[in-house]
Design brief:
The chain has helices spanning 16-36, 43-46, 61-68, 103-110, 127-155, 158-182, 188-218, 224-256, 262-281, 283-289, 294-320; strands spanning 40-41, 48-55, 78-81, 87-92, 117-125, 185-186. The chain is an alpha+beta fold. Strand 3 (78-81) and strand 4 (87-92) form a beta hairpin. The two termini are 53 Å apart.
């Protein structure tokens, strides 16, 4: 169903230089943030202990700090509000070495005089496990990008593959910069969001590339910039509807999903906006920078068709017994 109809072709490539400057500024800013502030790794990657506590009334954070001071287990612990005034999270960079100690029971005992509450969650990750999770997380991102490079190169050609990879690195870099800027913890949820961004952005890019390839095959006179503008315009309705509906769902999760998926939803929000933008103003213009030639591509297709026809002719002769 086509909700939007366009009677003219939009000049996207005419704005590509301005868009590329904006992208370079955003990516460099993200790198600067990563280099200066660095990622704030959560318990999943850095190791430590998290205890989530919910009170029936507003949590007495100051009183909690005083009560926990008397226990060495909670030394250097930080207590922060978690989504609402009644709910708090106690974070510790260390874990207890005694497997017989239940940190949940210790928390209940230490805070028993601070009011009525319940311990809702206890997460304990050792530093070695956290380090392994971080290494595997980074490896999963790298393997995903390499796999995408191979897939796109096989389906299209190397220029399309490199353009799509540059767009994906662009998207992930800006998403990481936004995470550092707002001070979110990087945990397994954020990693899942980054991998989702890779898939979402690639899907948008492949749809545009498919239309560009179809247009290149059909035309013989148009310049590549005109073909790209026409292809993006024809996919604009689909891109708009897909992005808006996805944004609506993710924004709903961000607003009402609770603190526990706040980082996941925020990362996806940034990724969807940047991924949609990059499929139009990053991936496609890179084809122009790489000097993709429509006429040479037609010659390549003609030679391929000639080779296939020759193979088919020889196969027919062999089957009929004529050599």
């Amino acid at each position: 169903m086509e909700f939007f109809k366009y009677t003219r072709t939009f000049n996207f490539m005419g704005k590509s230089k301005l868009a590329m400057i904006l992208s370079i500024v955003l990516v460099l800013s993200s790198f600067a943030l990563l280099a200066t502030k660095g990622l704030n790794y959560g318990v999943d990657f850095a190791g430590g202990t998290i205890v989530q506590v919910k009170y029936t009334t507003d949590a007495p954070i100051d009183d909690m700090r005083e009560k926990l001071k008397g226990n060495k287990i909670f030394e250097d612990a930080t207590i922060t509000e978690f989504g609402s005034p009644e709910e708090v999270v106690i974070r510790m960079k260390t874990t207890t070495g005694n497997v017989t100690v239940d940190i949940g029971d210790v928390t209940r005992e230490s805070l028993k005089d601070t009011g009525e509450f319940e311990v809702r969650r206890v997460d304990i990750v050792g530093p070695k496990v956290g380090s392994e999770l971080k290494e595997k997380g980074i490896m999963s991102l790298i393997l995903a990008i390499v796999g995408i490079l191979i897939y796109v190169a096989f389906r299209f050609e190397w220029r399309f593959a490199v353009a799509s990879i540059i767009a994906l690195v662009h998207d992930v870099s800006i998403a990481l910069g936004a995470i550092v800027l707002v001070g979110l913890e990087v945990n397994l949820d954020v990693l899942a969001a980054l991998l989702t961004i890779l898939g979402y952005s690639l899907n948008d890019t492949i749809i545009v590339f498919d239309r560009i390839r179809e247009s290149v095959v059909k035309t013989r006179e148009s310049e590549l910039s005109e073909i790209i503008d026409d292809s993006i315009t024809k996919t604009l309705a689909r891109t708009t509807l897909t992005s808006l509906t996805t944004l609506f769902v993710v924004f709903t999760l961000f607003m009402f999903g609770g603190e526990i998926i706040h980082a996941f939803a925020f990362t996806l929000l940034v990724g969807i906006v940047i991924g949609t933008y990059s499929s139009i103003f990053v991936a496609s213009p890179i084809l122009l920078l790489f000097g993709f030639d429509v006429k040479k591509y037609h010659i390549k297709l003609a030679e391929k068709a000639k080779r296939e026809a020759e193979k088919e002719r020889m196969r027919s002769q062999f089957e009929s017994g004529v050599m």
